[in-house]
Design a protein that fits this description.
Immunoglobulin-like; alpha/beta; 3 domains; binds zinc ion; Aminopeptidase; 9 helices; 23 strands; 492 residues
Length: 492
Amino acid sequence: MILLLFIFTIDPRYHTLDEVAYELDSIANNFSSITLLDTIGYSTCDSLPIFALKISDNADVEEDEPEVLYIACHHAEEILGIEVCMYMINDLISKYHIDSTITYLVDNREIWFVPLLNPEGHSIVMELIDTTWRKNKRDNNNNGIFDLDYDGVDPNRNYDFYWSKGGSSDPSSEYYRGPAPFSDNEAMAIRDLCRAHDFVFCNTYHSARTGLGEVVYFPWRAGEYFSPDFYIIRGIADTLSKLIINDQGNGHYMALPGYGVDGRARNWLYGVKGIFSYCIEISTTCIQPGWMVDDICQRNLVGAYYLLERVSTGGITGCIYDSLTGEPLSAEVIINEHYDPNLPPRQSDSDFGRFLRILKAGVFNIEIHKSGYESKFYQNVEVGQNTLTELNVQLKRMGGTFIMENNDTAISINPNPVRGTVAIQLTNPLYFTSLKMYDIIGRLLKNFDTTTNEIVWHCTDELNRKISNGIYLLVGETNEQVLIIKKVVVLN
Ligand SMILES: [Zn+2]
């Protein structure tokens, strides 16, 4: 009986879903300036919440800071990852404004955690229904009952990237990939989070019940098909794995390429989103005795923190703007030395036009493309050891037509120079998608309504403040990708 209890009891050191929820909630309340708690989805069968916690200064604002994601518990029984995430969350918040490195990281990164991605599968483990349960609880045979021998989808084979190559099509298999790519809410929650953010790195935490433990897998090697960033990703995996001391204390984790491409999270995260992703197989089995947990977490923390440092040590970063309006642009960034045309484009984000590509020291040829804009090519861009090379890019709109005053019939401004009030005449308002006034350095001052032929302007900005004397640019964006620009002189 004692033996049975030992086998079938899970140490209370491990969090239940309720405990995760309670702890995240109290952290979000007590550290509200540096945390943001969100529910990014609900589990497929039981609609249990999937939480995400963001840690950063001004946490409720999306800032122009590198983002890093930590995910645990794709697989229900692999509960050590939850503890690593919760441990790291507590470490970050408790050392903020105490430890200068942690403070710097919180202030200059956006750190995201999804500590318990598969809550309904996890409940099967924690309620001791099956402590080796791996999948979620999808009702594969639609009989309204949870069948241990038939139900569930492996969330880590459900991603839409070489989906059909991974796992099993047999619902009873532990590796069942689901009826369709992204059929299940768990993988969808990660997909949507990654679409809404621009993660540079991601650790997904696992533990191997039977396979090799204490390994860091990275994407990918499929025969002779290597991921285009393979050597950079591998270099980082090598460093990361060496930082995590093994349970025996006589060595460290080992970095291995993930063989093949399939619907695992790490392949989708990297293949589709360009996120350097690492699958960390924690410890040597899924459920270790409670007394080992803190030590395992502490050793894993070192590797997790390394990624937060690595985002600023070796690569190219910059913002891409419209040369005329200064608007940030989402454009494709090609590093020729690490380019695979079969993968979706690596793009700058639309909020800031920011891109950040992790590289090793070297010399690179870079291309920036966006439809409707002239491409830019940069040769021999140097990236040094431990530094980020800054490359800000102004893209020029193609077919942009510069029409000076007095030779333009689409917009007329009379009188110009303007004193006090002026009528801006549009010959055909339907032709315009926007009409905006900028100052000479490209700051947007006023957005005009283009539904009428005649706009009366009192030389005021968006907040109805009088603008000062000087030269301004009225930019009309048209539905033919043509910009009409008129110089306006204000002499109040
Ligand atoms: Zn796993």
